[in-house]
Amino acid sequence: VRTPGRRVAVFGAGYIGLVTGACFAELGHQVVVRDIDPEKVALLRSGEVPIYEPGLGDMIAGNKERLSFTLDLDEALDGAEIAYVCVDTPPSASGDADLSRLWTVLRSLEGATHLKAVVVKSTVPVGTGARVRTALDQAGLAHVGYAANPEFTAEGRAVDDFMHPDRVVIGAEDDAAARLIEELHAGVDGPVVVMDVRSAEMVKLASNALLATKISFINEIATLCEKTGADVEEVARAVGLDHRLGPHFLRPGIGWGGSCFPKDSEALRQLASNTGYHLQLLSAVIEVNNLQKRRAIQKLKDELGTLAGMRVALLGLTFKPGTDDMREAPSTVLASRLLAEGAEVRCWDPMARPAAAEPWSSTSRHETPELALEGADAAIVVTEWPQIKEVDWAHAAAVMRRPVLFDGRNLLDPASMRELGFTYMGVGRP
Length: 430
Ligand code: UGA
What we know:
Elements: E1 7-11, H1 15-26, E2 30-34, H2 38-45, H3 56-62, E3 67-70, H4 73-77, E4 82-85, H5 100-108, E5 117-120, H6 128-138, E6 145-148, H7 158-163, E7 168-172, H8 175-184, E8 192-195, H9 197-228, H10 232-240, H11 261-274, H12 280-304, E9 311-315, H13 330-340, E10 344-348, E11 364-365, H14 369-373, E12 378-381, H15 393-399, E13 404-407, H16 414-419, E14 423-425
Parallel strand pairs: 1-2, 1-4, 2-3, 4-5, 5-6, 7-8, 9-10, 9-12, 10-11, 12-13, 13-14
Antiparallel strand pairs: 6-7
Helix pairs in contact: 1-3, 9-11, 9-12, 12-13
Bound molecules: uridine-5'-diphosphate-glucuronic acid.
């Protein structure tokens, strides 16, 4: 038997806010999601979802009675017991996270004395909770509990990650707040770990940094495999069988991107340097990731002699498959470098909606991979969309000016591609 739901106000209708709001509604709570973007709220009210995330649309549609969207602050706070802050915390010029949206939300809570707890889900520097506490006290909300509840959901599987997490981390300053947030997650299929606020804030940054480290590590091993004749795919498979190391995040490629790893690794590095400590390992992890994209361009340059006047097809633009997200996508760096070297860039992606600005405004977009490959001197598999496997590569070899392929995700089979006449280059495989 479900306990009657809590009343939750979610601030921010981005990826995290929408998933959080929809999942809490699914768990039986009464949720109002508030955003300041009129277009976004209008879209959500009309039953559309502004982002692509599997299962999210159905979940929102299936919970209409318990989930609403508003621009209006009073409507969001009316009767709310818990305020969930899910606004974005983008990097500022200094590298520190820009918390201005967080502070704006917190200021707006002044007078909401009926709240029982304020929860920050946004990724924030360690120590932010203490500042939030002071802000709440100054806003007359000293009696309101505070908790940090970082998210570990990956795009493309956010709903599933929320409902079946490896862990729910709750950082709270008092038992009452911790219990309330734990109770809010009743029905979520995963262990709840309760700790102090600072540690919870650190768990989020440390987890993303370690995942990024695994990828940069295998990318460096891939480079060494190229120099020694080993095959990184075999190496990663066998390394991953050691249960202490695990098979995940050992896929070599063109480097990590997205809205989280680049931002969070920079934020953690900045956080450390603010304390007077230089994070050596993480700095190398970031550098290896930048190098990975430079190496991709260099490989093409070595093969073609020059990139000037060359026509290069980019297959896949999003930072990973299964999403329309272009934030910090490696494709943006590759397109910019190719254009700077004087190449012509033709693109294909089934979902990306790149900004109508540079570098994309200087590239052409094509409906199918085959069309993007027409007349190309080289192609780069940038994102491992499954459609790329289905391309008629024999046809592609015939319509390309030169059948040169850099498979930046080791998606295709080297032997079959070579049989079709391709000059095939992968990452860390012979
Ligand atoms: C990541 C984390 O996986 C989540 O746990 C975390 O909650 C989230 O960031 C966040 O902080 O919000 P996400 O950015 O959606 O999730 O994407 P991932 O699937 O982790 O991929 C990140 C990047 O690493 C992608 O560019 C991907 O292509 C790359 N990657 C991943 C590799 O190059 N190799 C791998 O083996 C795995």
